[in-house]
Amino acid sequence: MAEPRKPRIALMGEFSAGKSTLSNLLLGSRPLPEKVTATRLSPVWMSYGTQAPYREAMDGSTEPVSLDALEDIPVDETRVIRLFLDADILDVIDLIDFPGISDPNMASTVWERVLPEVDAVIWCTHATQAWRQSEAAVWETMPEPVREHSILLITRYDKLTTDKDRRRVFKRVRRETDGQFGGTFPISLLQALEAGDDYDKWDGSGAGPFVDHLLETIQKLSTLAARSPQPLYNITGDNAVPEPAAPPVAPRRVTRMIDPDQPKRSRPPSRPSEDLNKS
């Protein structure tokens, strides 16, 4: 009998909204070579493992690819790029990094064709121009089961220099997205990456509340994924999978991140990856 599939969480948003930095934060390291721009690629699907990377063509065939030559992969002929990494978070979920939704140099069909694989989304919106009309238009097309398990991050929150501006932006975004996300969190992703083991800086960046909520979401999604092979994007109406009556017990490897009293590993991960593994 095949093992239950892992939940699939997409990283989405407009160009330069912080998706690459978020990916680094969740994984504990940079998944792509420094010179590679993820926004110019087909969706990058990341799973746990040591397999060589490959691309899946539009006809379902696969072809090995080199990490040093990812930008040479033909976007229009590639449905998705598959990467396999030894990252703790990927032990419990798959991450799919989408290109920017409003890139004028990339047709929306490049990422739209991968949406049916998604259970939930972490959407990044830049604080200085948060929740643009183009973002709202795309989000309106998302099925309700995906929305209710998704997270909205107001990134680069430190770019808002006054408390008044921060309150104003957060209040407006919450009002305009009311009921459309499972949680909304302001965050400075760069500050979170730089926090290391400094818990005050970690929480001050906004990463603490976000990660706590993400871990709860992963627990719920893991239970739902175990009940159905279909991603939530494809489950609506009479086919909906019921929510678990109570949060499931998180895998030990994941829970290790949140409890600071748990013993450290011989090769401790960075603070961000460490926390996400305790979900």
TrEMBL record:
Q: Which InterPro entries does the annotation name? A: Dynamin_N, P-loop_NTPase
Annotated spans, Disordered: 230-279
Dynamin N-terminal domain mapped to chain residues: 9-155
Q: Please, which domain of life does this record's source organism belong to?
A: Bacteria
**Matches recorded under Pfam families:** Dynamin_N
Protein name, entry field: Dynamin family protein
Organism in which the protein naturally occurs: Yoonia sediminilitoris
